[in-house]
Amino acid sequence: MRTQRVSVRNVADLARAGFEIARQPVTKVDFEVHHALARTGYLRDLVSADDDSAVFLETLCSATNGAGVVIGTRTRKPLDGTEAVEHSDGRQPAERPEQNAGGWVFHQTTSPNPTFIYESAQTFEGLIAIDPAAREVCEWHGLAVRDLVREISDAASALIDAPLLSLQSPAQLPTIVKTRNHDLRTRKEVAPPCSSLAVRFAIALRDVSAAARFELADRFRELCEKHRYSFWLADTRPGHRQGNWFEVYHADGEFSPLYKGDLRSRQRIGTVLPVTFVGPARIGSTHAIASFLQRYPQVGVVGCAGTTLSDVAFVHLQLSIQGVAAERLNRILTKLLGESSTPARPQKLLRELFKRLGLPPDPEEAAGSFADPTADYQTFAGPALPYRPFQMPESMAVWVSWEIARQRGGLAAPLECLYRALAQVASAADSATVEYLICRATEQSVVRGKAKLAVPKSVLKQFTAGGVELPASKLCASLEEAWKAQVDRSGVDGVGELTVAWRESWLGHWTYS
User: Fold this and answer.
1) Which has the closest alpha carbon to 170: 318, 381, 380?
2) Cut 0.85: pTM above it
């Protein structure tokens, strides 16, 4: 029966690929990867640049620990320019970065995988909290996130043979609900911290049976009970939008066994190394990367953002390397990327980098018969940046969503108008940070997106007077109204469906994860 299901699925994937190629014969996807300091306004300055090269069709942005990444794609038709030279033998050299505004920029081209099913009628979305009370990232947190990413990707690829659609860390935990003596009449909702040490993920369900959901849920529940992590599942009941969660296991504030209490595990990380892996979207690619990193006990993952744009997989990881300062790491990495013989493939480039840093791997396991799903991926690493703790208690999350017709300005119009509205309503344009943003193009020539902004809680003082409405709700209502007014005054056509909320589930129903 399983062989028959796989055969039918392969035929369906092939038919979809043929339809996509016939509808839009795109053979290449151009993209940019920006690694830089996570400073206020970096994304705004980037997309507002008066330059066609800064216009992205689809965009992913993530910032944490003082480091940020912005990824943008553009699809290219065969008649547009010349094609890049292919390296079918797997020996494509690593990309040399361009330095820009204190960061590194990479420009490249890759082939999409039109058979990859990003959207699914059913998804399995989970949220696992490692250490919600943490105020800074320690060495053991990096090991915990690294191992958890491997477990999540293994469950997707090995357990149910399904794509891992998205990956995000840190993430916002569910809304805190308080009652007095369990009396629902005293129910009160409190916004959780903007970011917590947690991993959020989504897996596409090819098999939509209840048995498949239970199999996944049981595996993650057992994992969380073992490591004392809290675990939530997305609430899939009718009327519950994305951002509503159902608690499966509560860790009750206990430390994970990974936290051994010794000085090394408690030590705060000092450096983060942003690394982005790019290639045709396929099942098992994230698992291959995480499994390779797990062989290096000194290497942790302290942040991640993974998704698929234009049928291309983008897996961004922030690595922490014990005992290696940013200056030394950048010196070695710059020399490595400057050599024409340095390979772009993930395992080859990282193995050479770790070797030069003097990091021995655990003994390699016996080589298997399965091909490496990242054998044709490209790797973009650096620069290493000093770790900067994220200010969780001092910031609140403000979620925004929008849609815009495909046009030359791309993301610039809605983002610029949003910042103007922030300055008008809360004087917060200079202090609000985009922690997470995702934009996707649809078949109707519309680009839809959502973002999570970290806004200082001090702005709530302006909205505390009078009424029973929460200050956060007043802020969001005022910001949404001002945002719409700014868009109207901008004269840009095709911008609409603007929503602002302090809860993700209150955004438009079509928004993406």
Assistant:
1) 318
2) yes
